[in-house]
Design brief:
mainly alpha; 2 domains; 4 helices; rod-shaped; Conserved domain protein
């Protein structure tokens, strides 16, 4: 969307949209730098999987996480 309006200044677009500059740049930063929210969960799942000699399916992985009191959506 930003590429379409590259000849228009950001401040003009922000005035039209009635948004502060900080909101725009925060949104732009998040878009360019995605955060891996489930990084720790992924690491735990991989650890459990390899400790099971790569035999656990998703049901067993979910049970192993549940036994560690870690709940996640399936």
């Amino acid at each position: 969307m930003l590429k379409i309006y590259k000849n228009v200044k950001v401040c003009v677009l922000l005035k039209i949209a009635q948004l502060p500059k900080s909101s725009f740049y925060e949104w732009k930063y998040k878009l360019e730098n995605p955060i891996d929210k489930d990084k720790e969960l992924k690491k735990m799942i991989i650890d459990i999987f390899y400790k099971s000699f790569e035999r656990y399916d998703y049901r067993r992985l979910k049970m192993a996480l549940k036994s560690k009191k870690i709940y996640c959506k399936s």
